[in-house]
């Protein structure tokens, strides 16, 4: 086994144990390939980035199911393809429910944010309670939630504000949303 493959296997194992540095390593290693694959499919940089983030989030949630007999990159690409197909189906269903051409054209003007289940839980909370729940997070997670949801900064702006690479910001925000959703569910 080559040194690169050994390092990859070690990081996959650590990621399965919840190691954040291992998740960051995998994201950094495969971000460009997954993003490029999606960009060819959707031909829109923002949409490709959003789908890639959802794909990594789904992959990291399900990393315990990854079978080492397969190639990790292929597994990630397959997940990203499935996330894209699901989004296309959702769009087709929403377009199919529209009746007139005018209504159909308006559908295409709406940006499909596709909130995650965590986003929905977070948005449904009473603000005072939400702020109490956010304070239970570690300061680094509080900061990205604050910048993203209260100051409504883009990933790029958050990266500049925190002086961190954009991929780190994405991973930190994914983690913060999951932890916050868990806190909200418990309380």
TrEMBL record:
Transmembrane segments: none annotated. It comes from the Bacteria. Keywords: Sigma factor, Transcription, Transcription regulation. PANTHER family: RNA POLYMERASE ECF-TYPE SIGMA FACTO (PTHR43133), RNA POLYMERASE SIGMA FACTOR SIGV (PTHR43133:SF60). NCBIfam families: sigma70-ECF. Belongs to the sigma-70 factor family. ECF subfamily. This is RNA polymerase sigma-70 factor. It comes from Polaribacter dokdonensis DSW-5.
